[in-house]
Amino acid sequence: MFKQRFIREIRKNSNLLTRLKEQKFPRLPLLYNNYYENDNKLSDSNEISTAYFFDAIINAISPGPLDIPYLYNQSIGHNVEHKIGDKYKSDQQFGSSPKYRYNTNNNNDCSSFICPRTASNVDSEIKTNLILIILKRKFLKNLAYIATPTNVRIEAITNNSVVVQWDFIDKNNNNDNNIDGFIVKYIHEPNSLRDDNNQWKSLSVMDSFARHLYIDNLLSNKSYAFCVIAIKQNRQGPCSDPPVIIDRITPIHMISNLLISWKTSNSVMLKWEYNGPQRIGFYVNQTGRKDYLDQHLQLKGMISPGFRQELDGNQREHLWTTLRPYMEYTFHVGVRELPPSIKEYWPREIIVKTDPAGPPFVDIPEFIESFETSTAMIKLKCASEEYGPISHYWIIVVPGNYTQDDVLNLDSTALQKSTALMRPRSFHSSSNSQKENPLNFEKEISKTKRFIFNTNSVNGAYITAGIPVLDMRQMQRDNRLFTLGDGQIYDGYENWPLNSNVKYRLMMRVFAKDDHSGNPEKMFEYRAPIQKPVAKRYSDSMLSEPFSTKAAQIQYGNTRASNLWLIAPLIAVMVIALIVGMLVIWERLDPLRRPGSQERWLRCSRKGSSHTTHRHGSITKVALTGNVPSETSKLLVSNDIYGRQVVSPYDQMNGNGNPIMESSVDMYSSNQGHINNYSAVPIPMSLIPSSGGVIGGHTLNHPPVPISELAAHIEKLKMNNNLLLSQEYESIETGQHFTWEHSNRDNNKVKNRYANVVAYDHSRVILNTIDAIPDSDYINANYIDGYEKAKAYIATQGPLPETFADFWRMVWEENSVTIVMLTKLEERSRIKCDQYWPSRASSTYGNIQVALLDTLELAHYTIRTLRLQCRGSSELREVRHLQYTAWPDHGVPDHPTPFLMFLKRVKTLNQLDAGPIISHCRYENTVDIYGCVTALRSQRSYMVQTEDQYMFIHDAVLDAVQSGSTEVPANKLYTHIQALLQIQPIDQVSGMELEFRHLATLKMSNSRCGIANLPINRAKNRLMNMIPYDSSRVTLHAIPGIDGRRNAYIATQGPLSNTIEDFWRMIWENASSIIVMLVKTREAGREKCCEYWPEKSAAQFDFLIVEPIAEYNMTQYVLREFRISDAQNGHMRTVRHFQYIEWPEQGPPKSAESFIDFIHQVHRTKTQFGIDGPITVHCSTGAGRTGVFIALSIIIDRMKLEHVVDVFTTVKLLRTERQNMVQDKDQYHFCYHAALEFLASYDNPYQMQ
To answer: Which residues cross the membrane (predicted)?
Structure first.
């Protein structure tokens, strides 16, 4: 055969082989043997195969011309073709030189062949064919050059396995992956390179993107040689040169025993071992993917891009949080060398799927029509299975006058039990019937028979149908309606007929499928520690609008636009009670420096009674003096959420614009009356100071202050450096003349957190005595009276570990339903309170079992839902634990707005049996803070400990009176906006404009901006009326030799040319990895912001190097990615820069939907990349557009988590942190419009986790 003859001639060519040997190309035998053995496999064309063999031999030698002798017929002249691009040029060559030259220097597809006439004894057939093969380009023009893999690295991963890594770049082809795969060849103990190819073993990976290959079953502690070959079109390229030799197969920089310690729906705990060289660090890379059915039953895919964490070398575990439920994640953990080295070693891999959770969103059951008195047609929609496969659906019927808060976190087990206890029962109607205990559905409404709950039921809701997931899917595909009340059995639940005289609301609960169903052995696999909260396996929809079977359409009624508080002395005294009681309850000072205590407030109802009160007491509406009304009086004539008419005080202003106080309006119907089975706390008359402080009265020297004069009164107290306020505070009786004999007993001293914080005998809480245990009735707690209700609260110290059982016994015996906590567990490295509730699952304290049902962490406070059960009792109770987490370690908050939001949540969650908090005012429409504090001190020692707390009470009451509560349920937002857009008769402007005008009255004194006003900093401010407050400005680390610090913020102005370095320092030092830019560099012909980022190449700003990585032009924004590195230590971080380009030069964005989508993209990026640092937002001034972005982010989050909207308070809160946030009324209006637009998009659930 031709090929064999050709091979023999090459072997005879001693000159060529000698030269190759001299050049020390050790892989040539490998190449030779490889092509010799595999020639038949490479091509059916002998000519092409042999040419390829010859070409590979030549290319194995370093670049440069190679003279190959004795290959031509001496009598023949040959045409030599030069390929230049796609063209060929022929030249006839003659001469006497016995060699031809093959030039391998040309990288532009141009090869030169010089073929002189020579003399030879080589067989003519071989010579002729060889010339044709090599020189006739028609045989070679379709053969692509195959590049050689480079940078081959070998790492041992065990004692008998390695991973081979390589790089591959084809310089002659822009597509590096235009190949079929790779072959890795290896040989054991390569002491000498053998011509015998049997000594070399090979493994292939047919993937053009492959850059590594695992090889196992090797001999430990033995040396091996490796090389890599690229494959294209069934042809092999040259092997990587030289072969890489590893002395022994022993892992060095490799972790071991990588495992999953535990996991939840959004976190995974990784653990590993490492015994290699020290002075290293670790890296953890994470990717994820999942496939799921969305709410439209379309199959969707989700891929999480790669995220990375770098860890210290002393760590052996890492908790990766902010993961998505039921997503398959791949984690790689490896060793990295410390800077300045950037070398990283091969990682271990582990794959895990996070736990499922309830769906991200559940559509509200939609009432369609009713044809009969006992049935209604409703439309149900499937939920997305993004967070895990769905098992089944519950349709839950709720009384028509209950709110979303009433059905929050209904216990599924209790709901099933109460549903099972349903039975027919007759009862009579009452036109004024109101809702009783939350979700007790027993109401006197009709003589007709209907199905109700047993009075022992935990909830007044019931499950009317269970629907398996397959049935729900089919129902949606068929577009079928569900008949509510048809009497059929659905998955074990009877669909009870409805009553035409009753209004109902509906809710749907969707359950995720148990990840271990059918495999109980895996139930405890990867189980998280008990203190780690786990996600609920179900999700609830919001409540539908009330409906009845008589009407064929939803009966919305003339519902009020918002469930607002009416501002009155009640609001003032309620704030006093909560602030005075709760502030003072939790000690803010060191007890060694000033006597005090850490106490807890308990909202409680009558001991030992199942009856609870429902009356909130009388309240009085009031507007601001002048033409700026309070925020609770925006609507002229409207209804509250229960349909009762509310008359606005606009109609009641006198000719001077001042309000005329109206008679009270009851929150609940009068037929219930005011029921109070407690007697007032008995205070010995001989112990009451003559100067005042009597409950319900006032002191002679400090009469109550009319609400209309409150602002002026507080301003007067603050004059001369708070002189009058200090004198007033010091004159308040301390209450130390009361007795505390029980606190001083030997058995009780250990139950007191501080020796000087005691429980007065006359007002102490007395527990039921436990037999044979002396003083078992004692706990350091006192009753506090409320407005028209004695013993409305309990003020107690933070429980000690030895008093946990007594604390929960008190909660049970006093039938308390709300616990308010105003401290963190630890502040400034000091224990302020021991954790007395379980972090996960349940714990038993004495005879009380406490289970944690749910935890909701918000910006300023955390809400926990607890379930209590007493040993020997089947009764279950639900308690809300509200912890305010924004109180500073020292002093009081800078502004009361967040705290008032917290008080509103306390009242909302406790609304059915929480009477008005406290009022010690003798006259209507007055505030008696002095008398209130005096009265509180007569019931509990050291109530209101500091002058700052006393002043904070005044500020909070004034803020509540002036601004009121503008919070509305999300489902009432449209009605609220419509009402706000109405023109008010007094001012002839809309209520929304009045809201915005009121914001202008909250301007802070410029004295709070002292740092920004320093001469060294004034040049760094774009506008002097938009500079940061000292209390909330971002502080940069001082640089030696530079005077002053930049006024840079998280909400910041667009950088000036002289503040670019400071801007990037702010980004670096505050670990901010996302920048949001809401302005173009030039607008309306003026510079709005300098271009502070590099466009093409890296730029250095002080010690920071900013390097552009990528830029993506989206429809609404431009996304840029930068790599920021610290030139001092080599640390790096990726920063993503979002520039919104659709904000017009004048006015707000044209499309609220596109701006909401932009907010969503920013927050989704923050979540996906596991970014912990703040988002830096700027426009030109850092106020107007910046305020809109941040305000809407907060508003949307509250709508999702709390189902409420409060635009006014959100903007007010932002303005306490930075001036002029949300700058004009158009932007303010846009916030409302965007919030409404977000609600309209609920069919496409919005995720911002």
So the answer is: 564-586
